[in-house]
Amino acid sequence: MNWIIGISIVVVVLGLFIYRRYKMFAPALGGNHTDSEKLIILNDKNFNSYIKQGVTLVDFWAEWCQPCKLQGPIVSKLAEEISSNRVKICKFNVEENPKISKKFGIRSIPTIIIFKNGKVVEQLVGLKGKSALEKAVKKVIT
């Protein structure tokens, strides 16, 4: 009888874990996605001018990357919520702009790099939820 209670507890805990993960990435699972107007699209030519001053979060992505398709809406929502004079939220297509991608050694995508006055202060590799990105940005601006 005790083993039934033990299995029930494991099932409940696992269910809560799965639900939390779903809620973390739920904004990205909505289907059709349009980037925020506050999201800045970077390329090899304008990259340095945007990152040289202030705090800049850059999402390195590619069109064919499935995790990037989930990360994009999360970054776009972040741009809507915290984009300001103090923080710039940007996207950078690694396929179309190999020069900068090579400079920063981008080998896995999605990769999020946070710059402060042109210097890398934080690098996150893999799919990250909005709360993880907010926490990383707040750590840099405080």
The major pleated sheet works out as: 5 strands, mixed
Q: Percent range for helical residues? A: 40-55%
Give the CATH topology. Answer: Glutaredoxin
Architecture per CATH nomenclature, i.e. the level-2 architecture: 3-Layer(aba) Sandwich
Mean pLDDT: 86
Please write the string of helix (H) and strand (E) elements: HEHEHEHEEH
Q: Per DSSP, what share of the residues sits in E-state strands of 2 or more residues?
A: 15-25%
Q: How many whole angstroms does the radius of gyration measure?
A: 18 Å
* Number of E-state strands: 5
- N- and C-termini, Cα separation: 53 Å
Which stretches of 5+ consecutive residues score pLDDT under 50? none
Q: Which CATH C-level class is it?
A: Alpha Beta
Count of separate DSSP helical elements: 5
Number of domains: 1
Strand order of the biggest β-sheet: 1-3-2-4-5
The chain-level structural class is alpha/beta
Shape: elongated
Let me know the CATH homologous superfamily: Glutaredoxin
What report would you give on this structure?
With 142 residues, this protein is of the alpha/beta class. It has a single domain (3-141), classed as Glutaredoxin. Helices cover 45% and strands 21% of the residues. It contains five helices and five strands, in the order αβαβαβαββα. Strands 1-3-2-4-5 form a five-stranded mixed sheet. A hairpin with a 2-residue loop joins strand 4 (111-116) and strand 5. The mean pLDDT is 86.
